[in-house]
Amino acid sequence: MYKFAHITDCHLGSWRNPKLRDLNLQAFEKSVSISIKEQVDFIIITGDFFDVNIPQLGPVKRAVEILKQARDSGIPVYMIYGSHDFNTASISMIDILHSAELFIKPTEFQTDSNSVVLKFFIDKKTGAKITGISGRKIGLDKEIYEKLDRKNLEMEEGFKIFLLHKGIQEILPLDRNFKDSLPISFLPKGFDYYGGGHIHKRLEKKIDNSMIVYPGPLFGSTFQDLEETAKGEKRGFYIISFDKEILDCRFIEISEAEILYNEIVASKWSTEKLENEITRNISELQVKNKIVLLKVKGKLIGKRSHIDFGKFNLDISNKGALLSFINTNNLSTDELKTTAVQSDNKLDIEREIFHENIKNFQSESTLSDKLKKQINSKLIGNDGESLSLSLLEILRNDKLENENTSSYEDRMISSAKSVFDEEGYFYDI
């Protein structure tokens, strides 16, 4: 009997708050330590290893040390890239780790105008045959799936593992809106294990003799992730036992901190009434050594700026909380016109804001009609939203240690230009 671990969506380096960033790293370290203790034969990681393609060096150093622990224990790591790892403009940090042979990337393929032929990587100890497709932003990997030569993959014999960083529409929850997904018909049939990433929710489904598993993130990289953890979503990874077929599929929970979530809904309250309600709510909470998430939403009569939310965070901290965060994103006032978004997901909020504001885009009146038409075809509608999200993702990259302003600006411009170049936004007029 053999065993492998399946880890995904580590998002190392996420969180500006150093305590949350460290808890996330601890979760990854614990998952690898447990895998070593369990004597797994190999580890698979299905994307979004880092939160950005050029992360801060502190989390990179820790990640390298943890991956070396696995390698020094004789456990190979097979990893595909996720949409957060990938950059079309330049080398990403994940590329450097790959060059240092800290993991194996089983995504090699040959392509022509009509088809994509994936190659298998055969694990030396177990004979498992592993292949997969890395994730890319704004659906750029969809064409690979559309052209994938599934027949050759299906004809291959042996214990087969397919890795993907994309949702599968047929197994996603109906109450959740996952935009970046594909139909199951795009995948080759007959693999023993389909290891998924990108979906921040644990999913497990058996179809015939195949297992489809999305472990979800180890800790989480957004406040929505933490909120769902507080509401009962388990975080962790899987250990799979197999021989000629899967024998056992075991979830290993990782819990680095208890998370407490509470909600206050204002119904056309005055600032004084909301302040009193927050004070009462905090007085009733048992927060010691917990991460506290307090969501304040609804309708406020008055100015939000008249409420000192920082004081309430301090009150929670003085009660012994590990960390506290007060979310007022869905607290509306009459101060300004807002774009209503029925979601706490950062990507959905950003997408909806772009969607509403791109409608008002107008080309410069002095441009030729031909150029106006070309610009509008790319900057209005879904194309414009996708372009905006890609550029926003690039702007999230922080300045690197010892990187001067000029180099940082050149890197940002080069990354942004690559988005335009890739999609053919530049024209010779």
- Helix coverage percent: 25-40%
Largest sheet: 6 strands, mixed
User: What characteristic shape results from the CA principal axes?
Assistant: globular
User: Compute the gyration radius: what is it?
Assistant: 24 Å
Nearest-integer average pLDDT: 88
* Low-confidence runs of at least 5 consecutive residues: 423-429
Q: Strand fraction band?
A: 15-25%
**Count of DSSP strands:** 19
Topology:
Blueprint: E1 2-7, H1 18-37, E2 42-46, H2 57-72, E3 77-80, H3 93-99, E4 109-111, E5 116-118, E6 121-122, E7 129-133, H4 142-147, H5 150-155, E8 160-164, E9 167-168, E10 181-182, E11 193-196, E12 203-207, E13 210-214, H6 223-230, E14 236-242, E15 246-253, E16 258-270, H7 271-284, E17 290-301, H8 309-318, E18 323-327, E19 331-332, H9 346-358, H10 369-379, H11 382-395, H12 405-423
Helix pairs in contact: 1-2, 9-11, 11-12
Polypeptide structure, described:
With 429 residues, the chain is α/β, with parallel strands linked by helices. The protein is built from twelve helices and 19 strands. The strands form five sheets. Strands 6-7-8-11-13-12 form a six-stranded mixed sheet, with no helix packed on it. A five-stranded mixed sheet has the order 3-2-1-14-15. Strands 16, 17, 18 and 19 form a four-stranded parallel sheet that branches. α1 packs parallel to α2, α9 packs across α11 and α11 packs antiparallel against α12. The termini are far apart.
